[in-house]
Specification:
Number of helices: 6
Helix content: 55-70%
Structural class: mainly alpha
Strand content: under 5%
Distance between the termini: 30 Å
Bound molecules: zinc ion
Amino acid sequence: MQFGHLGIALAIASFDPRPETFAVVGAAQFLPNADSLVVRAGWAAPEFHGTWSHSLAFCAAVGAGAIVLFGAWLGGLALASIVLHVAADLPTDTGIPLLLPFSRRRFSLNLWQNTGYWGRSMYAGYYRQRWAWILEGAVFAVVAWRYAGALA
Ligand SMILES: [Zn+2]
């Protein structure tokens, strides 16, 4: 998922729309893809993207840290955000090794082709795939519904 990650962060933040919520939930949403910066820096092979930072162990560690730093409510929203990032990546055909470091088995819903991380994928055809539009459309429908309710 690409722009959909932004939508997921906005949808979660709608439950408590304060600046600090947008910051913490947004950071948690995009943190797993920071592994692409490690790849770009040349410190890891391209295959490193979508592995360790997308594992449930990483989610649990970041969620626990967020709860310690920000308390149960905001930390819990951060945990939901990072877990939903990983869930949103599950349609990728290459799959996500959710159980690292215990297992390298990859889990996938196999709805779209992996076109690489943010930036590269725009040119590789992510948005030429039907399920990308269906699922990201659903995410932004939820965002519209959540904020339309807030404005009413
Ligand atoms: Zn990701």
